[in-house]
Amino acid sequence: MRNKLKTWMGTLAFIAVLPAMGQQLPYQNPKLTPEERANDLVGRLTLEEKASLMQNTSPAIPRLGIKAYDWWNEALHGVGRAGIATVFPQTIGMAASFDDELLYQVFTAVSDEARAKYTQFRKEGDLKRYQGLTFWTPNVNIFRDPRWGRGQETYGEDPYLTSQMGMAVVRGLQGPEDAPYDKLHACAKHFAVHSGPEWNRHEFNAENIAPRDLWETYMPAFKDLVQKAHVKEVMCAYNRLEGEPCCGNNRLLTHILRDEWGYQGIVVSDCGAISDFWRKGDHETHPDKAHASAGAVLSGTDLECGSNYKSLPEAVKAGLIAESQLDISVKRLLKARFELGEMDKDVCWDTIPYSVVDCQAHKDLALRMARESIVLLQNRNNILPLRKDMKIALVGPNANDSIMHWGNYNGFPSHTETLYEALKKRLPASQLIYEFGCDRTSPVALESVFAQCAIDGKPGFRSTYWNNIKLEGIPATVVQTSTPFHFTTLGATVFAPGVNISNFSARYESVFTPEKTEDINFQFSAQGIIRLYINGEEVASGKYVQNHATLYTLKAEKGKQYDVKFEFVFYSNDRAAQLEFDMGRDIPVNLQATADKVKDADVILFAGGISPTLEGEEMPVDAEGFRGGDRTSIELPAIQRQLVGELKKLGKPIVFINYSGSAMGLAPESEICDGMIQAWYPGQAGGTAIADVLFGDYNPAGKLPVTFYRNTEQLPDFEDYAMKGRTYRYMTETPLFRFGHGLSYTTFDYGKARLSQNTFSKGETLTLTIPVSNTGTRDGEETVQVYLRRPGDADAPSHTLRAFKRVYVPKGGTKEIKFTLSDDNFLWFDTSTNNMNLISGEYELLYGGTSDTNQLKKIRLMIN
């Protein structure tokens, strides 16, 4: 089909170095299939050239017309790390929408922006990291434990929800399968059985995984993305599985992925994962780079994010691997580049204009998704929606933090609306009291004045980078940094495109114009060397500065201009670079003073929770209650808990708005607060969306994609990968809020469901019809959830999601929601084969608007 569709494209002018007679070589002929072109080109490469193409930063091979290409790009919830882009809610928030159709629209918009950016970058010269067409998303790992810092990147704890949302992402990114060229390539990660801890991921061994857990929980989403969505890349994980590193695991990459599932695409290593094979203190399963590289390729890892594969020619010469094995991987890589049109001109996707980036339609889409992601957890005494004549106090560390909205692996929006900004637009000054209140974790807060810095008419700092440690020569890049710094090279992430991972230096310059006379603290955390200058004079320096230390206090005078410059040098090869910087005034927390300032309000909104600076990927600095990006406890930080308690003494209703990328232990807060909203990290339109919900301009309908446990004590050991006791499917205790929970400003009633037939046999389809009535006074949406249970299977999950649909039902109306169910909806773990099969017997279909079995109705079904 692809070849037929290419014919109408005509002859494309592929630019390469042609042989003397000027004839076109087979690999240069766009009328041939990508596979035919790859087969021809691989035979023209030297051994060293093949090895170079198997690294994520692949150099040009001018004699064959192969351009330099970096395979690493990000689009977790919008085009990441490549300048201005539309920033949608963090992934876990989009999962709360339970709207895979909207998610497909989101990632169609993302792929439009990505293609437009690629076309523009290509016009400007050689492509750098974060400028290509291969995007390492989605993350379809199961969020098995809320302490995992990267759980925010996933689609939650349920394998079916994760699968459906993950497939929508892949299809939105890759585009129509019958197009002449693939739009982009997506990547299913991290394969497999990977979900923390972050601090020991380079040495961790996930072992003794029960077959039931493996096939019923950890594998389904990957299988669906491979076999149904036809994802073009799979990323293998850092950890070991049953003793073998995932990127060198024959069972995973050969027997399961390729032999059983028929996967034909690329396997890429997580960044630095091959180094873990041999590096002391990590897996240490191989003696050196050559053995590690040979082992990874032989197991099926085609592309390394890293540089160990430079040793592959040495490995071939030493007899560790045959060159023909490299050919298999290189063919896959070249085929992918031909599929994308990366080596051709006049590709159909090149016509997408750059004006789509940050366009109004995409901003509207970001707002729609932010609204759909919000979960109304609690609404005691119907405190919500708020009356617009109320005097409202807004308190808390997340009320006016725009960066927190972005999550991680993010792009940079042209504007982010915080909740404070949104409320200022809706309320007169006399009706709104804003009080910062407290820091997220500390009894002393830094109130930033970063926004009072600008240079050359641009906000923030001019950032100049050199790929040497002497700050000399031609800069690698010069960029404007408009927000407080949060840089790290963990995960092989660069500070800026074109900058080294190690052995680099930087100079950051701006002009600070204080708005009032006061002491301003310059606060740093750094793995590297820092030198700070004010008006040309060195005033402070430090090496490996920890815990946001104040290196210098400036006695600033209102209106005076201060030239601020600091230099950063990093040359270590055995640790990651880190630089965090902000400047501002220290404000000791005074709980009583905060309460006094808001005592006249009719209602108090507390915008609390955590942020991506506290939870995330292998973070370098530990804070109280956090370890390397993971959490040691899930409770709300103590200082916030104390402030909420102090506010409760005022006797005013409190609405708690929780921002986080994971479940929080909010049992005390649920008793104290009348209303509770889960906002996640809601993206650029988050403030608007939350305000819309608060005032009833939007009727919330989000549902939790994860269980909210009452406290840390309800969790099993973080390092135990057994599912027993975890998630709604295996938990026996009562959580605070269940998976699938989410309230509305209206009410829904479920009628008696009907099946088109009460028996099911392999290859058939049946229709489940569920009447849903809106019995309240507002129009609204409901997420209809269908679960499967097999009575009598003692080791099985209590019930497991097998269908869902978000539907609009007007007030007073009834809709009949139809689900077409087939084999895939009824697969169950088969103990006789240790795999998922159709097993005959009696089952129950449970249905309703939550996973709470006490609220679900049921209908019986016999499978033959």
UniProtKB/TrEMBL annotation:
<dbReference type="InterPro" id="IPR054850">
    <property type="entry name" value="Xylosidase_Xyl3A"/>
</dbReference>
<dbReference type="InterPro" id="IPR044993">
    <property type="entry name" value="BXL"/>
</dbReference>
<dbReference type="Pfam" id="PF14310">
    <property type="entry name" value="Fn3-like"/>
</dbReference>
<dbReference type="InterPro" id="IPR037524">
    <property type="entry name" value="PA14/GLEYA"/>
</dbReference>
<feature type="domain" description="PA14">
    <location>
        <begin position="456"/>
        <end position="602"/>
    </location>
</feature>
<dbReference type="InterPro" id="IPR001764">
    <property type="entry name" value="Glyco_hydro_3_N"/>
</dbReference>
<keyword id="KW-0326">Glycosidase</keyword>
<dbReference type="InterPro" id="IPR036881">
    <property type="entry name" value="Glyco_hydro_3_C_sf"/>
</dbReference>
<keyword id="KW-0732">Signal</keyword>
<dbReference type="Pfam" id="PF00933">
    <property type="entry name" value="Glyco_hydro_3"/>
</dbReference>
<feature type="signal peptide">
    <location>
        <begin position="1"/>
        <end position="22"/>
    </location>
</feature>
<dbReference type="InterPro" id="IPR013783">
    <property type="entry name" value="Ig-like_fold"/>
</dbReference>
<protein>
    <submittedName>
        <fullName>Beta-glucosidase</fullName>
        <ecNumber>3.2.1.21</ecNumber>
    </submittedName>
</protein>
<dbReference type="GO" id="GO:0009044">
    <property type="term" value="F:xylan 1,4-beta-xylosidase activity"/>
</dbReference>
<keyword id="KW-0378">Hydrolase</keyword>
<dbReference type="Pfam" id="PF07691">
    <property type="entry name" value="PA14"/>
</dbReference>
<dbReference type="GO" id="GO:0031222">
    <property type="term" value="P:arabinan catabolic process"/>
</dbReference>
<comment type="similarity">
    <text>Belongs to the glycosyl hydrolase 3 family.</text>
</comment>
<dbReference type="InterPro" id="IPR036962">
    <property type="entry name" value="Glyco_hydro_3_N_sf"/>
</dbReference>
<dbReference type="InterPro" id="IPR002772">
    <property type="entry name" value="Glyco_hydro_3_C"/>
</dbReference>
<dbReference type="InterPro" id="IPR017853">
    <property type="entry name" value="GH"/>
</dbReference>
<dbReference type="InterPro" id="IPR011658">
    <property type="entry name" value="PA14_dom"/>
</dbReference>
<dbReference type="InterPro" id="IPR026891">
    <property type="entry name" value="Fn3-like"/>
</dbReference>
<dbReference type="GO" id="GO:0045493">
    <property type="term" value="P:xylan catabolic process"/>
</dbReference>
<dbReference type="GO" id="GO:0008422">
    <property type="term" value="F:beta-glucosidase activity"/>
</dbReference>
<dbReference type="GO" id="GO:0046556">
    <property type="term" value="F:alpha-L-arabinofuranosidase activity"/>
</dbReference>
<dbReference type="Pfam" id="PF01915">
    <property type="entry name" value="Glyco_hydro_3_C"/>
</dbReference>
